From TrEMBL:
<feature type="compositionally biased region" description="Basic and acidic residues">
    <location>
        <begin position="14"/>
        <end position="25"/>
    </location>
</feature>
<feature type="region of interest" description="Disordered">
    <location>
        <begin position="1"/>
        <end position="26"/>
    </location>
</feature>
<dbReference type="InterPro" id="IPR014710">
    <property type="entry name" value="RmlC-like_jellyroll"/>
</dbReference>
<dbReference type="InterPro" id="IPR013096">
    <property type="entry name" value="Cupin_2"/>
</dbReference>
<dbReference type="InterPro" id="IPR011051">
    <property type="entry name" value="RmlC_Cupin_sf"/>
</dbReference>
<feature type="domain" description="Cupin type-2">
    <location>
        <begin position="38"/>
        <end position="101"/>
    </location>
</feature>
<dbReference type="Pfam" id="PF07883">
    <property type="entry name" value="Cupin_2"/>
</dbReference>
<protein>
    <submittedName>
        <fullName>Cupin domain-containing protein</fullName>
    </submittedName>
</protein>
Length: 126
């Protein structure tokens, strides 16, 4: 199976997420990277928590809307058609601000695929 087409809308959203998350990696047969499509309404977060990874780099490509990404130093605004990259060991929380005018749609890519290297981050403990 050298080629695949995956329709994200044919994949059920992941349960118990703060926004719509469609996990594309398994249906695409990907083993070394994680790819998710998020749709977040105003006030919704993309990840489950403010967090960081030991080894995984994350990239957020904004398909529509404007993504906010909180880091310990500042909050970035990432407009449509831009890519935001997070290196390992750097905390972040991606979300659609409560005062946003529209939903934000984001393609999130993480490599290597590492579900067990995620850690919650509390900025009050830093």
């Amino acid at each position: 199976m050298g080629y695949r087409i995956v329709d994200p809308d044919a994949i059920d959203p992941a349960p118990d997420r703060p926004s719509e998350c469609r996990k594309l990696s398994d249906p695409a047969g990907l083993e070394t990277m994680a790819i998710n499509r998020f749709r977040a309404e105003p006030g919704e977060e993309l990840p489950l928590a403010y967090h960081y990874h030991d080894t995984q780099q994350e990239a957020f490509y904004v398909l529509s809307g404007t993504l906010a990404v909180e880091t310990p130093d500042e909050t970035y605004e990432v407009p449509s058609d831009r890519l935001f990259v997070v290196d390992p060991e750097h905390p972040q929380r991606a979300y659609n601000p409560a005062d946003a005018d529209e939903q934000v749609t984001v393609l999130a890519i993480g490599a290597p695929q590492a579900d067990d290297d995620v850690h919650a981050y509390d900025p009050d403990d830093a």
